[in-house]
Design a protein that fits this description.
Elements: H1 3-13, E1 17-18, H2 19-29, H3 38-50, E2 54-62, E3 65-72, H4 74-100
Helix pairs in contact: 1-2, 1-4
């Protein structure tokens, strides 16, 4: 699962949202590092509907335009939970290895014997 997909599912985990709401929440969740353009967002939403990870919750007309709200399905929640678990496990492994990393690798130099200075 790619990061944008993970973030879209995460955005919908708190309740139904329309496309612009999803875009705003993804930007907030990613601290601005992931920006979804309309074509990318709606292509992803269509794909997630097809995969039955999300569904159309309702539609309404606002200012003459159709606004579609999407919600996470139980299958989508299950996949999101599994991916979050795997990411957490991988992050814990990375943090453990970083804590065990020799201190000279963190900007300190080694002396001539190779030991940290």
């Amino acid at each position: 699962m790619q990061e944008p997909t993970f973030l879209i599912l995460t955005a919908l985990a708190s309740g139904p949202k329309h496309g612009y709401g999803v875009t705003q929440e993804v930007a907030e969740l990613s601290e601005g590092t992931v920006t979804l353009r309309a074509g990318t967002l709606y292509g992803a939403l269509d794909r997630l509907v097809e995969q039955e990870l999300i569904t159309v919750d309702r539609q309404e007309v606002v200012d003459g335009r159709l606004r579609r709200y999407y919600r996470l399905t139980d299958a989508g929640a299950g996949q999101l939970a599994e991916r979050a678990r795997r990411l957490r496990k991988n992050a814990e492994a990375a943090e453990s290895r970083l804590r065990a990393r020799p201190s000279w690798g963190l900007g300190r130099t080694a002396d001539s014997s190779g030991a940290p200075a």
